[in-house]
Amino acid sequence: MNPRNFMHHHPHSHAPHSHSHPRFSRRRLFSTVIPGAILAPYAFPQNEADMAERFKKMSEDNERRGLADPFKGITTNGTVEPGLFGIHSTGVSTAPVRTAAERFLISLSKEQRDRTMFAIDDPEWRKWMNQHFYVRQGVSFQEMTDAQRTAAFGLLEASLSPRGMKLTRDIMKLNETLAELTNDHKFLGEWRYFLTVMGKPSATDPWGFQLDGHHAIVNYFVLGDQVVMTPHFTGSEPVIATSGKYQGVTILQEEQNRGLAMLLALDDPRRAKAVLKSTKTDNYNLTEAFKDNVVLDYAGAHAADFRAPERKQLLDLVELYVGNMDEGHARVRMDEVKRHIDNTWFAWIGGADSTSVYYYRIHSPVILIEFDHQKPANLASMAKDRNLPNRQHIHCVVRTPNGNDYGKDLLRQHYLAHPHA
Q1: How far apart are CA 269 and CA 252, in angstroms?
Q2: pTM exceeding 0.85
Q3: Burial of 267 (0-12, 13-18, 19+ CB in 10 A)
Q4: Distance between CA atoms of residues 332 and 90, nearest Å
Q5: What string of DSSP letters covers 13-81?
Q6: Those residues with Cβ within 8 angstroms of residue 17's Cβ, 6 or more apart along the chain or in another chain
Q7: Confidence of residue 134 (pLDDT cuts 50, 70, 90)
């Protein structure tokens, strides 16, 4: 039997099955994700120069493996579904983000601009990673002057909703909490986040920017008044600061709790279809860094079979993630999601009570959302069980399947209409 079909016929037997070209096992899939996540200062000699050199080599190795194949996009069967995305006017101005980007670039020195700006089609788009060890490009908040930080935050504020901005800042603050807990202020901390700009900010030509750092990645592509804000990664360890400078800062609890509420809202037959596996002892996110071409079939419960209140609840859950982008473009994005609600799937792995750890996925031709309670990584030595996922380490990722992550499909169409040198 086809393994992708096997998931549908025996939903409680297997975790989500994923492969890319060439096909790879779950062990190989996670081999490039988990080792980076478990890196902590105590795992290596405390010589900062040696550690930095090791981190550089690991970063290069991940890039070499992750970028070995040209970008195709996440698909269900290895073939991009055509005709999903088109160039059109949204009626939502991108002037505020363009102006903010220009102000940010002007605030930089020539040397900083030279290492911050890349061509619109540069592979730099795909060079992001949520692990702390990754060696990043661009200019960091760590090195910015106060005026430059103000301009950088201005760019994020123009691009994100107030909710999305608060989430991003709180992730940065929790990275400071992690630095305090691990006594590692060399590779962790509030300001170790980098900005790069692809293309030149323009009202007509494609451009964009990327925020890249531990547990916070924003890819923001702009063409005219259209925006694509994926891949978008959010997460933290810990997700609740119980001590230190930012004690009380808390993130991703609504995403956690409303995901569970969505499962519990389903009647028994639909819930049985949604649950792929009722226990969770591993990390399950499949589309994090360098997984741009993952082949992942639909699985779980089909929203076409949901009752009207359940469909609304699912869309509200999607909006919780989409709503991190600026309000106008979030509305445009949600309209896109709603057009494909009848081909949207909700899948679950793990327990189903208020203390459970779990993974859930929402998947349609135009959006893919993953939420995952992860194994302890940097805080493994402080965990009750370092081998099991816990609620203090969460990863979330949002993707645009079928070739439009990083706005790639819009850029392709733009080049067809406007050939470039």
Answers
A1: 29
A2: yes
A3: exposed
A4: 7
A5: T-PPPEE-SS---HHHHHHTTHHHHT--GGGS-S-HHHHHHHHHHHHHHHHHHHTSS-----BSSSSPP
A6: 3, 4, 6, 7, 296, 297, 299
A7: confident
Q: Would you state the structure tokens that stand for residue 72, as one six-digit string? A: 């195709």
Mean pLDDT along residues 387-400? 98
CA distance 263 to 218: 28
What size, in residues, is the chain?
Answer: 421
CA distances, 119 to each of 116, 200, 201 (Å): 10, 8, 11
DSSP 277-320: ES---S----SSTT-TT-EE---SEEGGGS-HHHHHHHHHHHHH
What is the chain's percent helix, strand, coil content, to nearest 5?
A: 40, 15, 45
Residue 242 main-chain phi, psi, to 5 deg: -100, 0
The C-alpha torsion from 229 through 248 and 359 to 267, rounded to 10°, is -100
Coil, strand or helix at 414: helix
In this structure, are residues 189 and 142 in contact, taking their beta carbons and an 8 Å threshold?
Answer: yes
> Per-residue pLDDT for 264 more than 80?
yes
Q: For the purposes of burial, counting CB atoms within 10 Å of the CB of 413, is it exposed (0-12), middle (13-18) or buried (19 or more)?
A: middle
